[in-house]
From TrEMBL:
GO function terms (MF aspect): copper ion transmembrane transporter activity
Record's keyword annotation contains Membrane: yes
Location (main, coarse): membrane
Species of provenance: Cinnamomum micranthum f. kanehirae
The protein's name: Copper transport protein
Membrane spanning stretches: 24-44, 79-99, 105-121
Similarity annotation: Belongs to the copper transporter (Ctr) (TC 1.A.56) family. SLC31A subfamily.
Subcellular location: Membrane
GO cellular component terms given for this protein: plasma membrane
Length: 138
């Protein structure tokens, strides 16, 4: 039965039935994996934003009247940017689903991973990068 309130304990199922923890070792490794995955999300988000800025600075401004017909609409840079956005969205939603296990340790591991990942990967040039949406999964 799935918990509907936060609980603290080593016995849990994460995302799929085969990912169950029943010992402190497996629980600790799961929390470490979630922490690293959350930090990796911040790294990938930083790469996506930097790539988007780089591709925008290299392409000429397109006409606002016909954005679908502009020549850069099918450029490799836009395709790669869309691919990175899709990967980041998938990682964000998987982290959200992990938190929805309602395990307190999972919640703490994901939030700490996001915070440490932001500190390490995204605050170096914070004044030169504008984020259009602060949502963790956008």
């Amino acid at each position: 039965m799935m918990h509907m309130t936060f609980y603290w304990g080593k016995k849990m199922t994460l995302l799929v039935d085969s990912w169950k923890t029943d010992s402190w070792t497996s629980y600790g490794l799961t929390l470490l994996a979630l922490f690293l995955f959350s930090a990796f999300y911040q790294y990938m988000e930083d790469r996506r934003i930097r790539f988007k800025l780089l591709s925008a600075s290299k392409s000429p401004p397109s006409s606002m009247a016909t954005p679908l017909l502009s020549s850069n609409a099918r450029s490799p840079a836009r395709f790669a940017s869309a691919l990175l956005f899709g990967i980041n969205s998938a990682i964000g939603y998987l982290l959200m689903l992990a938190i929805m296990s309602y395990n307190g340790g999972v919640f703490v591991a994901v939030v700490l991973g996001l915070a440490i990942g932001y500190l390490v990967f995204r605050t170096a040039d914070a004044e030169s990068i504008f984020v259009e949406n602060p949502c963790a999964c956008a």
